[in-house]
Amino acid sequence: MKNFRIVAVVAALVLVTAAFFLVRRSGGEKANEFRLAAVVRGDLSSTVSATGTMKAVTTVQVGTQVSGQVSAIYADFNDHVKKGQLLARIDATLAEQAVEDAQAGVARATAGLRQAQGDFERNKPLYDRKVITAEEFAGYQYKLSAAQADVRSASIGLERARRNLGYTQIYAPIDGVVVERNVDVGQTVAASFSAPQLFLIANDLSKMQILASVDESDIGQIHDGQPVSFTVQSYADRTFHGTVKQVRLQSTTAENVVNYTAVVEVDNPDGKLLPGMTATVDFETGSALQALLVPNSALRFTPSDEQMKAAGINVDSMKAARGQRQGRQAGAGGQGGAAGGQGGQGGAGAARGGQGQGGFGGGAGAAGGGPRRARGSGGRIWTVDATGKLAMHRVRTGLSDGKNTVVEGRDLKEGMQVVVGSNVATTATAGQATQNPLSGGGQQRGGGGGGRGPGF
Length: 456
Fold this sequence. Notes:
The protein is 29% helix and 32% strand. By secondary structure, the chain is an alpha+beta fold.
């Protein structure tokens, strides 16, 4: 009898253990049906990306106003020069001959002036005594005036020749660094129609600027004083910082794309940044500090009808409520989408118009090369317990950097595991059947960027 009891107890323990592992295995398999990620707390910023070219703040092209052969060069690439320093000489033979010719012209005009002055002075008393007529005396007056004008003209010609002789010596107009040297000794330069560039001098390379080309859809988020971070290919592992100095009103159009130029001020104390470098610029349009962050895939995830039914969720009532919301959103935003029910991810009907409020779904902004979520838009995330049962949580979404999004929710906590995808192929819901999960259902631009989220 005693042995029978022992056997019965052992059998009961075996059955309980087997049942426990069976239930645990079933719950584990059900939990493994989903891919999970943790809610984390951290800093996040939204940005607008652009590319631009590094330039010195002040550059001066040094040219020549006279033609001739370059006879000497006194400055080379990267040389530091001072204002007034001699940079080059142009052969002055012709200029010197022009000065001598002008001097001869002045001497000739001066001799003519002396002769005309003498004739005038000799004939003035005769005219006063009525010996010569007024017509004859007027001729002497004219010759004197003409001789005086010839002297002035010859003097101006001499000054011009001397100035051109001075132009054969090329001086630095500012203090700076020689960035370009475009001539060599023996090269002939012609300044007949335009002044050829001999040197390019940058005033101060410790202060640089980036001329960044920003798309018209993003330029509204750029303003003076805005912080900027950027990288260059030469120092890919280093991030530089600057500030927006100016947003130029002049636009450029290339292949039907309108761009504006944003000027970014950059300090370059160590001289690492060089003129002509290509910079990849990120304009900070918003930031959140120590906020709760979830992957964007968690906000895009929508369970299938089967999964929601298994979790005890009334799919039909949820679809009806979703359709009503989309109808209200379409009417309020002037949208032309269907109000009846094909919500899926991002509220396809309401957001198809492109500019209204996206409700829970919102739209997908394209600022800075990644989706942006509108401040205060709604979304839903899903969690799963140890037995694999789904639970839905309503959240308010904020900034997004294209990978993570700031969220707020009453029952949302750091470390909570949220569903980012499903490992089991199931029948898609009505909203998922026709949409790319990355499309977000519609596009909306504005403020800190659009929003992407599941649209029930």
